[in-house]
Amino acid sequence: MINLTRDLITTVYIALQTITALFGGYQIVFSFFGLLYRTIPIVHPPQKRFAVLVAAHNEEAVIAPLLDNLQQLDYPKELYDVYVIADNCTDQTAVISRQHGAIVAERHTTRERGKGFAIRWMLNQLNLFDVPYDAVVMFDADNLVSQNFLKVMNNRLMAGKKVVQGYLDSKNPFDSWVTVSMAISYWYTNRMWQLARRNLGLSCALGGTGLCIDMQLLKTLGWDATGLAEDTEFGAKCVGMGIYPEWAHEARVYDEKPVTITASLRQRLRWMQGHFSCAETYAGSLIAKSIRERNLAKFDAAVYLFQPASFIIVFLTGIMLYLQLTAHTTNPILAGMTQLFPTWFWLLVNIFILLQIPLALFLERVNWVGYLGIPLFPFFLLTWFPVTVVALFTRHNKTWVHTRHSRAISLEEMKNR
Question: Is 101 helix (H, G, I), strand (E, B) or coil?
Fold first, then answer.
């Protein structure tokens, strides 16, 4: 019985070592391309006309600062309109939005609830208007936006890009250990994943907000991304068709992160359920196309679908190193486990990955307070595992759960904190 148990554990361990080594090594190699950042200059004058969509469900507490922010963008006012999708709201979201200059479209339905469905409904409404929009930009009601946002999007669209993702930053990074941990994961991913792929000419991962899409492309593809991770779903569909979303490091969106661990777990569970559902639908076809076409961009997009959160690899490599060093002393069953990779390999992988986190913060010029969150980050990584496991087995759950927001601060107040 002991031998059978040892063989089973060894098999699982070898598989885990292999997967972790491949993903860890893959990400380390690619992350080196995120060290260099060159600003893409604005060479095209404002020309594109934007429909700016703000999806909102009971967001009376936070939506006013965003709408005021959007009215002050460094872009000709006649070239963009702000629409608020008041989706099944039972509060004053619609009233406040009108007071702050937005065009409000109220949606009431007991079916097809959730952000993806609300966006699809709004896009159908836009088709009824006699306004020649060139592109759609999407934000969440709790966001704040850098003033150059539309200028950058116009520049990328004029350069021929069809889908552009803005930089995803945090509005409240220092509210709690949870928010600073989420902020660290975004700063790290923005630099070492997203920017690296822009430098390599690969597709970035879409983030659900700060997203710009060419209107003609939307009319061609339609919007059927109505799952719990509509951003990942739309991105996978685009890459499969040879349209690679572009990362705009220069245009920032500031998103409110949940303050408590309970709220964060609930939000991340929804993300991961949607992510696994997308992986089930698109990963196989992306891998097949990448092999058939010898296309690195499609393979890389498939890797992202298989890897629910890139920074989980940071923790997995640490586990590998710990087991490598202690397995022979902690349990007689573990003592015979095959060490597929030598200890020095895991040591080097850990050093490379762990050094990337403070390096990413340094390169992104993060406030020194952010570095104080690094010792807490491993504890936050631990919380991803129950989320990921539960999400895997509940990936067909389509129930959308609203994340409550309460941080109503202006862009200037945020910058001066």
Answer: coil
Q: Which residues lie across from 253 on neighbouring strands? A: 145, 168
Taking alpha carbons only, the member of 173, 344, 168, 186 closest to residue 259 is 173
Residue 305 near residue 235, CB atoms below 8 Å? no
Task: Report domain extents, the chain.
Answer: 2-34+311-382, 50-282+405-411
The tokens describing 280, both together, are 């089930």
Could you count the other beta carbons within 10 Å of the beta carbon of residue 109?
Answer: 11
* Per-residue pLDDT tens over the stretch 125-175: 888 888 899 999 999 999 999 999 999 999 999 999 999 999 999 999 999
The fold adopted by the segment(s) 50-282+405-411 is: Spore Coat Polysaccharide Biosynthesis Protein SpsA; Chain A (3.90.550)
Distance between CA atoms of residues 148 and 150, nearest Å: 6
- Buried residues in 352-371 as b, exposed as e (16+ CB within 10 A): bbbebbebbbebbebeeebe
Distance CA 191, CA 367 (A): 16
Count of Cβ atoms closer than 10 Å to residue 282 Cβ: 20
Structure tokens at 356: 């990337």
